[in-house]
Design goal:
mainly alpha, about 60% helix
């Protein structure tokens, strides 16, 4: 079975050759990609619930790993984060009460609802977002 590449190869040089990548550099890139993907998964409350259900959040070693991942807040790394909510949840996961609340599906559903609402409106300027009734009213007046 052919192993699929986990990262893109280095770009070609102007002469058309592809530079060699050391095994250490390749391993570092794979680790970077894996940790970035994991951190961004933390933006999903259902994923957090699954970590709770599988008892990862009760494992002190896993909690220490989450603390280690706080380096993603540094400017040279944070620029790769697409879902900033992941960093908020990463911090909250350092607290035992938050980890315990992830066992409550009502709480998890509320986190998901709030997150969905945030993603719907985060680019709307304050005061510029119209309610559905205002939009309908505007359309019927024209």
């Amino acid at each position: 079975m052919q192993q699929l590449p986990t990262i893109l190869p280095p770009p070609e040089l102007p002469d058309g050759t592809v530079p060699a990548r050391s095994a250490e550099r390749h391993a570092n890139l794979v680790r970077f990609q894996a940790e970035l993907e994991f951190v961004q998964c933390l933006a999903n409350p259902l994923y957090l619930h699954e970590l709770f259900a599988q008892k990862y959040l009760a494992d002190p070693a896993f909690v220490r790993y989450l603390a280690y991942l706080e380096y993603w807040r540094a400017p040279e790394y944070v620029r790769f984060i697409v879902y900033p909510t992941a960093l908020t949840y990463l911090s909250l996961l350092q607290t035992a009460p938050f980890r315990l609340m992830l066992g409550d599906m009502g709480f998890v559903s509320e986190l998901a609802r709030i997150g969905a609402r945030q993603h719907e409106t985060w680019r709307a300027e304050k005061g510029a977002a119209k309610t559905e009734s205002e939009t309908v009213k505007d359309e019927t007046e024209h």
